[in-house]
Amino acid sequence: MALHRRNKVSASFNMSSMTDIVFLLLIFFMITSTLISPNALKLLLPRSNNQTSAKPLTTVSITKDFKYYIENEQVNVLDLEKELQRRLGNDTNIYIALHAERTVPIEKVVKVMNIAKNNRYKLILATSPER
Fold first, then answer.
1. Is residue 39 exposed (0-12), middle (13-18) or buried (19+ Cβ within 10 Å)?
2. 104 phi and psi, to 5 degrees?
3. In degrees rounded to 5, what are phi and psi of residue 67?
4. Of 26, 75, 107, 131, which one has the greatest count of Cβ atoms within 10 A?
5. Model pLDDT for residues 32-50, shown as the tens digit of each residue
6. How far does the chain reach from its first CA to its final CA, in angstroms?
7. Distance between CA atoms of 115 and 32, rounded to whole angstroms?
8. Does the pLDDT value for residue 69 go beyond 90?
9. For the chain, what are the domain ranges?
């Protein structure tokens, strides 16, 4: 009595499902990478090796032509304190990152430091790593 198998197992591998997964992962990483933009302003920061573990709630940036930004929104220097108070409130445990171009005079940086001190905000001076 001869028994024959009706279905034969194919030893070939179909790559179409693998390419679908690769393309889905590619699309996922492309979309998530566009959502990440830590600071859209291009600033040449001072250099330092020190780092802090505190996470700032917002950023204040000063460009080389003395324009002030909160996050990516330009703010008049006279309205800077009011705008920070409006956004952050009176909480004393708030960290602000200060991104100042390396050519900005220290008096412009001290002005932002005084605003942070008067409102009891904690200020982190952002730097780029030394090489």
1. middle
2. -70, 130
3. -95, 135
4. 75
5. 776 665 555 566 666 667 6
6. 81
7. 35
8. yes
9. 47-129
